[in-house]
């Protein structure tokens, strides 16, 4: 964890995923959710190899430059270390790579930091949390996929909260845990109670008629669950 980076203070709460947005009005939709309180905007990069779909590249990150939010880039691509420089140059604040996507994890995470970004490590639902232990000192964020990566609108995998708890037990308390996939009003509370503090939501935000209101409702649910946990067990993640 690079504790001095001021961006870490904003790396929390609901992170709307632009995968579910209307790309014809991308900037105004993003500005709407930021005005509603989102301090993180999630950008899903898919390469057609690590996951079947192809989505977006650095040009989309660049299009969001200047938005008053952390640009959180989730690289669902093989050998992400080869692309990190382009995404950093485009304005990525967080560069998250998958443990399953490269044999050179320490190199990739170190490079993300060297390029001036925060370094995130993502784990697919079937991947045990072990890589977090090996790379802990290089991590600014841990991402628990709560669906198999590749598509928005999937159903939340119900064993995810137990995995989040295992991750939280292994990580230093100041490394935030982000959840991604099937996060909505029904599932955000269990994620928050398990220790997640960043909540990626695509369909549950941009799939709604009022994305700003959706951010506020999700935020309230997460805070309610966090408050209930803090009342029971005061602690660093509470
Ligand atoms: O990384 C991914 C999908 O692989 C996600 O970020 C999705 O964009 C989440 O979408 P919803 O499940 O919230 O609709």
UniProtKB/TrEMBL annotation:
Catalytic residues (positions)? 44 (proton acceptor), 180 (proton donor)
Q: Which Pfam families does the record match to this protein? A: Ribul_P_3_epim
A GO MF annotation of the entry reads: D-ribulose-phosphate 3-epimerase activity
Main enzyme class: isomerase
Q: Name one GO cellular component term.
A: cytoplasm
Q: What's an example Gene Ontology biological process for this entry?
A: pentose-phosphate shunt
Q: Which residues bind a divalent metal cation?
A: 42, 44, 74, 180
Q: In which pathway does it act?
A: Carbohydrate degradation
For the ligand (substrate), the binding residues are 17, 74, 150-153, 180-182, 202-203
InterPro entries assigned: Aldolase_TIM, Ribul_P_3_epim, Ribul_P_3_epim-like, RibuloseP-bd_barrel
Reactions accelerated catalytically = D-ribulose 5-phosphate = D-xylulose 5-phosphate
The prosthetic group or cofactor this protein requires is: Co(2+); Zn(2+); Mn(2+); Fe(2+)
The catalytic activity of this protein is classed by the Enzyme Commission as 5.1.3.1
**Cofactor binding annotation:** Binds 1 divalent metal cation per subunit.
What functional role does this protein have?
Catalyzes the reversible epimerization of D-ribulose 5-phosphate to D-xylulose 5-phosphate.
PANTHER family per UniProt: RIBULOSE-5-PHOSPHATE-3-EPIMERASE
| Protein name from the UniProt record | Ribulose-phosphate 3-epimerase
Q: Which species expresses this protein natively?
A: Patulibacter medicamentivorans
Name the gene for this chain. rpe
